[in-house]
Design a protein that fits this description.
- There is one protein chain.
- Helices cover 71% and strands 0% of the residues.
- It is rod-shaped and about 90 Å long.
- The chain starts with a helix and ends with a helix.
- 0% of the residues are buried.
Amino acid sequence: MNTEENKPRLRSQKKAVKSSNTTGEQKNKKKKKNKRKINPLVFTLMFISIAIITLIIGSLIGYGVLGEENPLEVFNVETWMHMYNLIFG
């Protein structure tokens, strides 16, 4: 028995041994596992559309359920003018 084989290896030495054992195919598989990056424009459009949808749904729920009115009245201009007059009038 060699005493060098029984010595504990350092982390950097273990990584060197592991990387020397991998084949080219395994390296390609590791590269393919990287997460796909989302295009910033697509991300921005998705964020804005989700924000608008949640705003509309929140308005419908707030006006219809909490306000006990017809939820579709939230789309009337008169409703918003009335709320503006209540706040600033």
